[in-house]
């Protein structure tokens, strides 16, 4: 089949209609997991089938789509999903957070603050926050009904008893508007504060588990904690080695077999924009307009501008600007053009 | 069924319903804001916005209740032809459409079950006009406070007190739509 043989955004209209109703009920009851008839998608479970269905139900031809995987625009999952919607919906795509109207994400919230008019779609593996404490759906459903969340506090308490602190570092449970306990998907707990009072609409899709849930804008979301062990949004105690940012979530990258390592922003767009604006970290090189000099050392084959494989770069992605007057150099297009 | 029932649907359903859904999502996610819906021309007395909502959200799995003046032959035929939705009594409805007076008493509509609060009705309430004035709205989706020309206060306050149960509402007037989910708290301005 060629791309033109698919319905707009791949799914058939009745499926989108069903997903749209589930999204609206999710918006009406923030944090409650709405069951929906998840479809088989042309990708395996665990690759974002829930997020893809939610995105497909929300997309219009006027949208600009950004897809990130752990903050990066250029990893396999993000590139595949972006290409999927380029083919089946013909939408514009971008790597710039501020340019996007819909952002599908796997396990991160962008560092750049989201705005009204944006929708953040999360890929969710296990939507039920109580699932690893209580495997039976009938029981967890009853627990949500009765607001019986003591078990979750016991789990956090056991963390403290064993480790001296709450050791849960991702998929950290939150309470929405004082009612439903919700799994924010496996985002690092560093991102949890960004869930609350966001200007954007946040939608969560779990394909295998057949659940959709949502946070309307300006919804109060609180990370569970104790008075004497308050929630801390932690990150690695370093600055980004490429852009020098002290306030962004970092990935640790092994650079050799002698214990060498570097810390880089997990949000590639945020890091790139900072470097284009002249910020340089411990190992970063200034970004030049020609982009012929790669910043040393390349952190990994699929990460980092210098080591980017031209085949993985996305020819359809529009060159993302980095703030006003800074959109000249430093994006993937230039790499590809120099490579050719 | 008259030939007129066949007219007035979407010319390009995938694109028009996508735009319509985004407007309705914004309306429900940001209570008190007014959004535009266009693309459908339903028979009188249904407004354009209500017609677009029906085409976007209803199908053969969503029983629809038509209240009062909306329960007329041309509209029944139009909804049946374009969506295949069964037309039912108020108690069984997933979507209920009509003027505020005709929908009374609203306690008839499904408010969901404690373990499945999503199994509740959505009311599409036809209004003569919609303005961002009137009762004060607070809650999820609203930065500080919003105002919307609701047709009543008590019924909606009672509904929101049922949270997480309750029905959800769209208000439609001409091409305008506003949303009022059950999570919104309502008080006199």
Architecture overview:
The complex is a heterodimer of chains A (340) and B (189). In chain A, strands 1-9-8-5-4-2-3 form a seven-stranded mixed beta sheet. Chain A is globular and about 55 Å long. Helices cover 25% and strands 15% of the residues of chain A. Chain A folds into two domains: 3-146 and 171-218, Bacterial phosphonate metabolism protein PhnH (Rossmann fold, 3-Layer(aba) Sandwich), CATH 3.40.50; 236-340, no CATH class. Chain A is built from eight helices and twelve strands. In chain A, helix 1 crosses helix 2 (49-58). Chain A is of the alpha/beta class. Chain A has helices at 13-28, 49-58, 76-89, 137-145, 150-163, 192-195, 268-276, 332-339; strands at residues 34-35, 64-69, 92-93, 102-106, 119-123, 174-176, 180-182, 201-206, 211-215, 221-223, 250-254, 261-265. With 189 residues, chain B is an alpha/beta fold. Chain B has one domain (11-184): Bacterial phosphonate metabolism protein PhnH (Rossmann fold, 3-Layer(aba) Sandwich). Chain B is built from five helices and eleven strands. Chain B has helices at residues 13-29, 48-57, 73-83, 100-103, 154-161; strands spanning 35-36, 64-66, 95-99, 111-113, 116-120, 122-126, 136-138, 146-147, 168-173, 176-180, 185-187. The longest helix of chain B is centred in the N-terminal third of the chain and has 17 residues, at 13-29. The radius of gyration of chain B is 16 Å and the shape is globular. At the A-B interface, helix 1, strand 1 and helix 4 of A face helix 1 and strand 5 of B. Chain B: One of its GO terms (biological process) is organic phosphonate metabolic process. Chain B: InterPro entries: PhnH-like_sp, Phosphonate_metab_PhnH. Chain B: Keywords: Lyase. Chain B: This is Phosphonate C-P lyase system protein PhnH. Chain B: GO terms for molecular function: lyase activity.
